Structures are given as C-alpha cells and as structure tokens.
Amino acid sequence: MSVEKIEHLEDPRLTQYRDIRNKSHYRTTGYFVAEGWRVVERMLNSPLTVQSILVSERRADLMLPRFADRAEVYVLPDALARELVGYNFHAGVLGVGLRPGNPALRDMLSSTACQPLIVCCPHLTGPDNLGSLIRLSSGFGVSGILLGPGSVDPYLRRCVRVSMGTIFQLPIRISPELRSDLLTLREDFQYRLLAAEKTETSRPLREYHHSEHINHPRVLLLGNEAEGLDECWLELVESIYHIPMASGVESLNITHAAGIFLYEMTHHREDRRRLLLDDNHLSVGEAGGEMIDLPGPLDHPPTDQ
C-alpha cells in the first residue's frame, strides 16, 4: 500500500471520483463511493474490494495513520478536492470500492443474522429512506432486504453514507421478479408474508405478539408514505398490521414506521439478547446515536464524519 499526493485533477487515478454526483455513472462502472471516515472504515473491514481512498490535505494528519497501510491512499489539496467533488468537502475522506453482485435469494436464508426476518420494499425510491432502512435493519438483526426492480440503487453515495456503512454487512437483493421471490419464500421455505399497511381488515400492531407468526420466519412488506402497498402485494400476505395514530395523521415516513415494526417484531424473542451491546461499545454523539463496534483508536474519533 502507498500514500501519493496528487496535484492535478486530470490525474487518471482520480477517474472514479470525478462523477461523484452522477447517479448513473456508478451503475455502469461497477464501483461505488463511500463518504466519511466511519463508512470508509467499515468498507475496509468488510469483504469488499477497496480500490483507493481519497483524503483532503486538511484531514491527512488524522486519516493517514488509519488508512495508509490498508489501501492505496491519495492526498489532494483542499481547493482541488472541493472542485473535484463539487461541494464543500467537510468529511475530507472518500473511498472507492467494487460493488458486490446482486445476492441470490438463498443468501437471505443463509445469513448469520439472528432474526428469521426479511424486509421487503417493492418500490422504494429515496436514497435517504433506503439508507436509514438498511441501518435499522442491521440494528435489529434482520437477515436481508428485498427490493423491487424499480427501487433506488442501494449503492448510491447518499444511500451508503446514510446507512453509516451497515450496508456492507447486510444482503440486499434487487429482485428482477419480486412476486416470484416472495412466493418462493412462502411456499418453499415457509416464510409468513406480513404487510405494514392501514386497510379495512388490518390489525393494530400490538396484536402481533398474540399471533401465530412470532415463531416462524417472516417477510415484512413496507410501502412508501405516498402510495403505500399496491393491492397486488397485499393479496399475497397472510396478515396486515397498522400503527394506531392520532386523528388527522394518515401515515408515517417509511423509516419511522419500519423502526416501530422491527422493534415490535423482534424485541419479544429470546435471541434479541444477541443484539445488545455492552457499555464499551455504545456511543451517542455526532453520528446521531450510532452504535459503534470498532475498538482501539476509534474510541476517540475525530469530530467530522
């Protein structure tokens, strides 16, 4: 591994950093961009291939000791870094990795996650929402996320950042035939299909604990707050649950609703104990209450993400 200073934006080593705001660019190149030291750290700790790391000169003293012996690191003057990425480069750290292939459905079943629970979103288009949902799903120990073919790319820079790097530990499948995948889970692997939606026949979520579903593997289907779940998905599920709310409030953001559902669907199980972190691994700070399981130097992180 090496550390190299770059003086010109035309340098070919910066190729994968030039179109950072072009969403379609990374779909075709096979790479993705990680932003912020925490996310880059988790990328380096994952099985994924890391091509390089870019550090602004302002952050070099803090970041080089952390990354220099683990990847090719390029140092760029601050003014050039801002020009390259097209915005004020507060985080000061970017990394480029090789995006993984689309996992097979069976990868969801063989996951080491402790809950027999898959989250499914037929049509999720917001990168912030998906990034938050990935982080929630990882936190509650679900075994994978299934996305419909029209959903947002989970490896968009914004999505990866909002997930805080938890995307690297969770199988996320963009299903070309989502209905077929759901039927396979239901009929071949005895998953119970459940939906989060308010309908005339839906039950309050508090009744979930008294249902027969709690001892079976499950798929939770979530819609978005604008459209909810189409009837074609609701007709596949065994039960529909809703969150009771005050009069005049019709829906919650998908990530808020998902957090409530995932807590209710996992906290009663004995193996939830495996999700708890001891006091040495709990950090509430600038990352918004992020649970950090990174020992050593990260116990005293720099202030920027």
Can you walk through the features of this model?
This protein is an alpha/beta fold. It folds into 2 domains: 3-98, 60s Ribosomal Protein L30, Chain: A; 105-275, SPOUT methyltransferase, trefoil knot domain (Alpha/beta knot). It is 28% helix and 17% strand. It has 11 helices and 12 strands. β7, α8 (157-162) and β8 (172-174) form a beta-alpha-beta unit. α7 packs parallel to α11 (254-266). It starts with a strand and ends in a 39-residue tail after the last helix. Residues 270-305 have low confidence and may be disordered.
Quick overview:
28% of the residues lie in helices and 17% in strands. The chain has 305 residues and is α/β, with parallel strands linked by helices. 37% of the residues are buried.
CATH-defined fold name of the largest domain: Alpha/beta knot
**How much β-strand is present in the residues?**
15-25%
Q: Which series of helices and strands comes N to C?
A: EHHEHEHEHEHEHEHEHEEEHEH
Low-confidence stretches: 270-305
How are the strands ordered across the major sheet?
A: 8-7-6-11-9-12-10
Helix content: 25-40%
Radius of gyration in whole Å, from Cα?
21 Å
Give the averaged pLDDT, no decimals. Answer: 84
Give the class from helix and strand content and strand pairing.
Answer: alpha/beta
**Can you count the beta strands?**
12
Give the name of the CATH architecture of the largest domain. 3-Layer(aba) Sandwich
End-to-end Cα distance: 24 Å
| Level-1 CATH class name of the largest domain | Alpha Beta
Q: Can you identify the CATH superfamily of the largest domain? A: SPOUT methyltransferase, trefoil knot domain
Outline: elongated
Main sheet specs? 7 strands, parallel
Number of domains: 2
